Amino acid sequence: MRAFSHLFFSFLVILFAISCSDAFTRNDFPEEFLFGAATSAYQWEGAVDEDGRTPSVWDTFSHSYNRGNGDIACDGYHKYKEDVKLMAEMGLEAFRFSISWTRLIPKGRGHINPKGLLFYKNLIQELRTHGIKPHVTLYHYDLPQSLEDEYGGWINRKIIKDFTAFADVCFREFGDDVKLWTTINEANIFAIASYSEGFAPPGHCSPTSFFNCSTGNSSTEPYLAGHNMLLAHASASKLYKLEYKSKQRGSIGLSIYAFGLTPYSNSKEDEIATQRAKDFLFGWMLKPLVFGDYPDAMKRVWGSRLPVFSEEESEKVKGSSDFVGIIHYTTVYVRNSTSTTPSLIPRRQDFFTDMGAETICKIYFLFHSSMDQNMASWFLYLIKYSCSSFWISHGEFYIL
Ligand SMILES: *[C@@H]1O[C@H](CO)[C@@H](O)[C@H](O)[C@H]1NC(C)=O
Ligand SMILES: *[C@@H]1O[C@H](CO)[C@@H](O)[C@H](O)[C@H]1NC(C)=O
Ligand SMILES: *[C@@H]1O[C@H](CO)[C@@H](O)[C@H](O)[C@H]1NC(C)=O
């Protein structure tokens, strides 16, 4: 079982921070600041075929190769009370988790599964009883397999309507107790991993001699999926603001995966490449959310491969996030890519070649002789999680 939970990364980061500096205490942070941890349904719940849950694209994807799966995971579906107790003992003030769409609505739309509903109500109640604020992520990469089969999931605009209907059920059923909603987790990296690189479900990419996806097009699908995510987010957010916000008084936002990006050298071209990487990796999602359109740098490179917002869509996307979730693990160096940059794998046109910049993981990593084996392997996993996609794509990886 390799689907380790973000929860533990957060624990580690906290532990690490504490060991580095004894000088800070809770009192150094504002009252409203929340210390918490996070996970996702597929990483935590297990119980994948119990009580009416049906397969999501994660189940299909992880079972399609011998790569580990979330069939049992942390068994949170059965052990949530123990887990919440542990969280309370640790002093967590918030817990961010995601709702498994197929546990709540097994066919993707329509019938609500009473046992799924009860599980999330119980979990939310348990958190609140222990004084822990629930923060719900609606979508954490686990699309109902039935919707993927029916119309291709996120690359089809039909997803907007189905996602909004799913969100509606969640707002209606849980919104009296949940004040923080993230519509889509790490939307940028989800589009890249799932539709450009092919290493997250549904595993789409253009084939190369190194890695074959069964279907996909890395030069078009990530942008199509990203576009539909922004529209689906905006649609759910609009619904929340119209129907629920005044009564429930919560906030709704979208989260992105945010590397720190820093130029590899002090050359002008690496500096420009770093700005371009910021536009591509963050501006892609953030500029539409704030200004209603994509960054100019992306429009120039993508041309007709970049979907266009109609005026109405642009207005809807603009201002649709009360907050932006920033998920940060590590910092990478950015170097202008040239045709002579060595690469482990044959190039195809994909998100990173469009970006025209190499992202290089450079991690200063000291094995302390006192660090026990377990701790060391957590750190290695953290590095792998943060860097491996870039290593696979772009062939430079350092552990110093
Ligand atoms: C991807 O789509 C583009 C634009 O439609 C097309 O030119 C290209 O051949 C496609 N690539 C693959 C691998 O299917
Ligand atoms: C991927 O598919 C191509 C074309 O069918 C083939 O030439 C190549 O050997 C395959 N690569 C792998 C790793 O299976
Ligand atoms: C960056 O690399 C590209 C080739 O990929 C090259 O055309 C360009 O001149 C380089 N420098 C800058 C500043 O873009």
UniProtKB/TrEMBL annotation:
Belongs to the glycosyl hydrolase 1 family. One of its GO terms (biological process) is carbohydrate metabolic process. It comes from Brassica oleracea var. oleracea. This is thioglucosidase. Gene3D superfamilies: Glycosidases. The keyword Lyase does not apply. Its EC number is 3.2.1.147. Degradation of glucosinolates (glucose residue linked by a thioglucoside bound to an amino acid derivative) to glucose, sulfate and any of the products: thiocyanates, isothiocyanates, nitriles, epithionitriles or oxazolidine-2-thiones. It catalyses: a thioglucoside + H2O = a sugar + a thiol. GO terms for cellular component: vacuole. It is found in: Vacuole. InterPro entries: GH, GH_1_N_CS, Glyco_hydro_1. It comes from the Eukaryota. Transmembrane segments: none annotated. GO terms for molecular function: beta-glucosidase activity; thioglucosidase activity. Residues 1-23 form the signal peptide.
